[in-house]
Specification:
single chain, alpha/beta, 6-stranded mixed β-sheet, 8 strands
């Protein structure tokens, strides 16, 4: 497992990209409050092979959007577990 980030020359960025066997599993953009979808998510979704994007925040709502899922940070973290072999998997239905 690897933890990385993405940033381009115009300083668009995604805070975290989780890789397994050098392939992206998902990306996470972090915000301090509930906001609209980060423009960087759409930008990198169109230009990368990252299969899932999440925007996490410290606000109060969880929202499913067309291009990403918004979660309060506590809810997002509860949905992921690490197995003994080091692989991450989503435990949410």
């Amino acid at each position: 497992m690897e933890l990385r980030f993405i940033r381009d020359t115009d300083k668009r960025a995604i805070d975290f990209v989780i890789l397994q066997d050098k392939k992206p599993l998902f990306a996470v953009e972090c915000k301090t409050g509930e906001r609209d979808l980060s423009p960087a998510i759409n930008y990198f979704k169109e230009r990368t092979e990252i299969p899932s994007f999440y925007q996490v925040h410290t606000g109060t709502k969880d929202v499913l959007k067309k291009d990403a899922e918004f979660y309060h940070i506590r809810h997002f973290v509860k949905n992921w577990e690490c197995r003994k072999d080091g692989d991450w998997f989503c435990v949410a239905g």
